[in-house]
From TrEMBL:
It comes from Halomonas aestuarii. This is Copper-binding protein. Keywords: Signal. Residues 1-23 form the signal peptide.
Length: 140
């Protein structure tokens, strides 16, 4: 039953976003750019805390130094956000949902999203959390 309630809530939220978008303009016309997150083999994450607001459109650039393979997870943040697109090497992906992004080499990935629910959501590199690869999104 909780899954049905969640599905109804998501549907109502999407209708609300569509109504707001048509009434006030497209919220995805201009994203607030978050400070880029750099994954560095020596020092870990360049940013360990982001403070964002629900209903605001953000672009989160993640860059890897390429010295390690990194699997960056933010499952709860992604679950509680509307993911507009993921851009990799100027190619756009329009996902239905997102669990993680992975770097095998040096490069950048941009995630464009709107947080939907307040809370604190961890992001981390699987297996490297104690080596400086963990952080938190505080969504107000």
């Amino acid at each position: 039953m909780p899954e049905i309630a969640r599905s109804i809530s998501v549907a109502l939220l999407l209708v609300s976003l569509a109504t707001t978008a048509s009434a006030e303009g497209d919220p995805t016309r201009r994203a607030d750019r978050l400070e880029p997150l750099v994954l560095d083999a020596v020092s870990g994450f360049s940013v360990t805390r982001y403070e964002v607001e629900t209903g605001v459109y953000y672009r989160w650039r993640i860059a890897s130094d390429g010295l390690e393979e990194y699997k960056l997870l933010a499952p709860e943040l992604f679950k509680e956000s509307w993911i507009d697109q993921v851009v990799i090497e100027e190619k756009e992906v329009k996902p239905f949902g997102l669990h993680a992004v992975e770097f095998d080499d040096e490069g950048e990935i941009d995630i464009w999203f709107i947080p939907q629910r307040p809370g604190e959501y961890s992001y981390y590199v699987e297996g490297l959390e104690t080596q400086g690869f963990s952080g938190v999104f505080v969504v107000k």
